[in-house]
Design brief:
By secondary structure, this protein is an alpha+beta fold. It is built from 4 helices and 16 strands. The radius of gyration is 18 Å and the shape is globular.
């Protein structure tokens, strides 16, 4: 929710990737009013991003924030609406698609995530995207998708809910041909040896307020963008029980199908039929 004195730049999505302290499995308790405030704030982020087409500019940030500000990058999709000059997120409202730029971060190994913001949890994610999680959330809102609820574990397991999301990967192979694949095909079930068959859902993560300064942080910015292990901080999660304990991880990279590390990719999100 906006507050008096807030500028558009101060509440637009930024490259900030901070995760609130505390247990990973338990989301902070929030009252109905606080939850409503978070929902309103997220909607405002989307509206401002679409209206301005920019995120916070370096000359409008505090000195500490300006030091972390990313440099504007070339717009590869001028036919689409880009939500930030520094983060690679585009929307196609006619097709209901969100396009996110990134690269392959892991082509072999066990997984807790499919995609994370670059510089966060790349050691356990197939893809690192050049975007904050909150801007992806705003983009999904902008194409007409509303979040459900994150997973909960107390008093019992309740899966994440929300609209089902199709995730498509696009990249250029060694021969220069553009390829596309269902992202689920890049993930293998460690017990069955088969590719993931379940669609992700737009759970929506949560906001956390720092009691020291009153600032709000979108929790998935810490890395929990597109999860294959259940996290109450996930923007997109699997609606099936999937442990995050190291000895019980359910998924791994389907290494025979994933391009080599550092391959540039685009991740396309849309409503699953």
């Amino acid at each position: 929710m906006t507050h008096p004195g807030d500028s558009a730049a101060s509440i637009l999505p930024t490259n900030e990737r901070r995760l609130a302290p505390g247990p990973r499995r338990m989301a902070p308790a929030r009252g109905a009013a606080a939850c409503l405030a978070s929902a309103i704030q997220t909607t405002v982020l989307a509206m401002l991003a679409i209206a301005s087409g920019v995120s916070a500019r370096a000359d409008e940030l505090t000195p500490s924030e300006a030091g972390d500000a990313a440099v504007a990058t070339e717009d590869r999709h001028p036919e689409l609406r880009r939500l930030s000059p520094t983060e690679e997120v585009w929307i196609d409202r006619e097709r209901g698609e969100v396009v996110i730029g990134g690269r392959v971060a892991l082509d072999d190994g066990l997984l807790e995530f499919f995609a994370c913001p670059a510089g966060t949890k790349e050691h356990e994610s197939v893809v690192a995207v050049d975007s904050s999680a909150r801007l992806v959330h705003a983009a999904l809102l902008a194409v007409g998708l509303e979040p459900g609820k994150p997973v909960s574990f107390d008093p019992e397991y309740r899966p994440a809910t929300g609209p089902k999301i199709r995730v498509t990967m696009r990249w250029t192979d060694a021969d220069g041909a553009v390829q596309e694949a269902d992202a689920r095909g890049w993930i293998r079930n460690t017990r069955t040896g088969k590719a993931l068959e379940t669609d992700w859902v737009f759970a929506g993560s949560a906001f956390w307020t720092d009691p020291a300064d009153g600032r709000e942080y979108y929790q998935a910015d810490g890395g929990d963008l597109l999860c294959v292990s259940n996290f109450p901080t996930a923007t997109l999660d699997l609606p099936i029980e999937s442990s995050q304990s190291n000895e019980a991880l359910l998924f791994e990279v389907f290494k025979e199908r994933v391009p080599k590390r550092e391959t540039p990719v685009e991740m396309i999100l849309s409503a699953a039929e």
